[in-house]
Amino acid sequence: MAGWGHSMRQVFTLWPTDRHAVPHRNLDHNGLPDWVSNPVPGDISTGWTRGDWLFLLIASLPVMALGGLIADDPHLTIATVLLCGLAIGLTAFAITTHRRQIAALQIEIDRAKRWNDTIFQRTGISLWREDWSHARDAVKQLLARGVRDMQSHFAANPDELREIRRGVIIKDVNDFAVMRAGATDKRHLLGSLDSLLPDTDQTFVQWLVAFANGDSFYRSETHITLPDGRQVDTLFTAGLPRNIREFEDILVSDLDITEYKATQARLAQAETDLARAVRVSTMGALTASIAHEVNSPLAAIISSSDAALRWLGRDAPDLPEAREAIANVLAAATRAKAVVEQTRALLSNEPLRILPQDIVGLAWDSIALIDRELRTYGVSTHVDAPDGLPPVMADRVNIQQVMVNLMMNAAQAMKDSTGKRDLTIMLAQDGDRLRVGVRDRGPGIPQERLQTVFQPFYSTREGGMGMGLAICKSCVEAHGGRIWASNVTGGGTEIRFDLPIAAAIP
User: Per the UniProt record, which residue ranges are transmembrane (predicted)?
Assistant: First the structure.
């Protein structure tokens, strides 16, 4: 559907797939859409009902009885008048009652028409009334021939698709559609759909697919160029027919979602920028640990290089010892390179690289990354993980950021604790998910705030940005997981999240 003028271009895409928005399909026992066999509902009758005729028959009985009496006794003049009056009165009553029913029905029809006109003209969105009976007949014939894959059929027969589109008629549009299209008169938009949309095969064929599938509604997102050159994003929706006749008058709505899409894009970009800012902020706390991690292999490189030179500088060079020292240089350089790459990835805007990951190794690497900071807070770190845990599907740097943030939060929560400052990472399989928990022994979170800790700009500590847990939530949800918080009996907080197991991904 949906048209604005000869210069319109349309690119079909499904509206962002919401699993709850999958159209309900109505199919009969043969797998055909219900509308193929559904009877057309009968028209409302304004004629006399069976009850009306029965009432008149009863009313006519006195007249017939009167006729019999008159035949036997011509002197019953008074009785004749009374019976005739009664019969005429009853007949008049029946007619009057029927006319009142018709008048009441007409009032209801007029009221419904006014309400329909109000909805059609004043909804603030474009509405199109279209006759798809020609397309209905074509789809019905194809189904009768055993064609089920409409997409493939029309891809192989584009001329047939164009012929069907020419038969779809735009019967009426509301004023808002005329205004949005930039037309001066609705008549410019009426007529064959093909005259308005000569190049929308991909969009049009989706309607036929929906008809053949027995879908209860149609919805698609379309990018349109208006005749004046404006680019607009549009959402088209329509309730699809339940019987043969309803194809003659399908109401299609289109909603301009250009600003919505632009806002969503801006929000997504803002979230990306904010995530990067938080990563940079996090790196401030990691600087000492990173320096330590880099300095250690650099010191090993210097020491091993000096040893190799000494072994080679002897009058009789000790090649095995020199070779071992050079191997140590290579290993230390590799460790330093890994630290640099890990830091660079943490600060970059690179897209997620979802790969099978060893979650236990990932946990230990995360601990090593901030080990110096954790020791500064006096935190003892433990990893509780059973043997044989399966790998998870995750972006290593992304999930490492989550673990680092959660551990730093836990350490900061325990900084004023006078008891043991134990931080435990718990790993366990839960069906086709792997659950990760980070538990501390801090003061916990007030019960009424457990549901809000993942909201942006909410912080449980003074001076906190309130973005750490919000970013963690975004990272976990980007992996198809979920994250939640709970208090621990005896004191402390546990933040848990889950990730899909690699074996569970087809």
Answer: 53-70, 76-95
